[in-house]
TrEMBL record:
The keyword Iron-sulfur does not apply. Keywords: Ribonucleoprotein, Ribosomal protein, RNA-binding, rRNA-binding. GO terms for biological process: translation. This is Large ribosomal subunit protein bL25. Belongs to the bacterial ribosomal protein bL25 family. It comes from the Bacteria. It comes from Candidatus Palibaumannia cicadellinicola.
Length: 96
């Protein structure tokens, strides 16, 4: 099972997402289940290395957000049209 470290993000919206991308991070969200969605930010370099593994797309992943472990699956990925960068990921909670 892959483990990904993430941080919660306070600022949301287009401008905040652009500022994240300038420092080599990008926004993501964790939703599903009976709890509220969590807006997070991920490191571009770490995810670019992790996404090369086939299990990133098909297996259950563990997100560590502020010390809390959440099991998720990748639900949707948005990529930049011509750069080899990700712009957003949706994670769906998996009940364990």
């Amino acid at each position: 099972m892959l483990t990904i470290h993430a941080e919660t993000r306070q600022d949301q919206g287009t401008s905040a997402s652009r500022r994240l991308r300038l420092v080599n991070k990008f926004p993501a969200i964790v939703y599903g289940g009976n709890t509220k969605p969590i807006a997070i930010e991920l490191d571009q370099q770490m995810i670019m290395h992790t996404k090369n593994q086939e299990s990133f797309y098909s297996d259950i992943l563990t997100l560590i957000i502020n010390g809390q472990r959440i099991t998720v699956k990748v639900w949707a990925i948005q990529r930049h049209p011509f750069k080899s960068k990700l712009t957003h990921i949706d994670f769906l909670r998996v009940s364990s």
